[in-house]
Please model this.
Amino acid sequence: MNNINFDPIDLTQALVRCPSVTPSDNGALDIVENHLTYLGFRCTRLPFSKTNYDNVDNLFTSIGSTGKNLAFAGHTDVVPPGNESSWKYPPFSATIDGDKLYGRGSEDMKSNIACFISATNDFINKHGKDFNGQISFIITGDEEKEAVNGTIKIMEWAKKNNITFNHCIVGEPTSNKQVGDKIKIGRRGSINFFLTVKGVQGHTANYQRAENPTHHLINMLQKIISTPLDSGNEYFLPSSIQIPTFDIGNSAANVIPETARATINIRFNNKHTGESLMKWMQQHIDDIFRPLENASCTFTCDQIGESFLTKPGELTQLMTKSIAEVTGQNIKPELATDGGTSDARFIKDYCEIAELGIRNQTLHQVDEFVYLSDIKELTKIYFRIIENYFKKDQ
Model:
């Protein structure tokens, strides 16, 4: 229980100094557990494993036994720093320079975890441990990679142990120009298609005796990207089709290759499902390749998540009210669904959920940083949310 310090900036530094690149933890969960144990939380470590995947440690903590349960969800794992010599400061040094705190994971999302812990400490110090409610922390070490031994299994474990949640805030960096100006109420789905087109290899001078798979693949991809999937809706941007890889693997300029490959990534809104997009992909293949005798196309797919939307309700209204009270500027947060995937996709089936955190500006970049003033502001907003949630605003 040494080094218990609830200042959100100091706590952010302590967490960033743990090089917790997935699946390693290197002390990050210990810091969270020690601080919450000090406050009286019941803490349970949850190491999970799955064949062919990394073993990962996780943490579930809670305080209170009756009343509404407000959960906070986050991850202590981070992506690799890349070329460390490109960083202004060592990526796990948590160096403060002027008004910025640098380090891998400072924005995504250790500062957000630190802010909620600090806000919880302020709330308990002011209102005591008997506040007629429950606060839970769902903290995983498996968000940045496959996410198979993290939040999804924590939620299954909680259900088996009859632990229920009323609302959950995910501390991803959601804000845009200032803290509190954007709340995520859903996320787009993501699916990858890995295409392989097989033709007939031959000499480029004797093209009539060959079948160039590259031409057919290009033709199909052109048709796919030339027609938008949709135009979006009230809460979602139009679905995005991107071609991140195109590979022939042919080093000879006078040889028609036998195979050509490409990858398609689709970030899709709630007008689609993974299943409907698989049928859409197969239809494009049939349209191009069914008439051909000497060329064929097969695909495999990897779906990261379905799209989902939590319609604005009690939680978003309370968060909006709290943000306005703290900022004094009557900010009306944008309710958005943009960005990548998050662990909210695993929690949405258990309770109403929304995401709110620090400004989204440098996550996964070299010289990732957060503004010190943003850490202080987010802590105040989280504190006000907790007060309003448990009706301690009088």
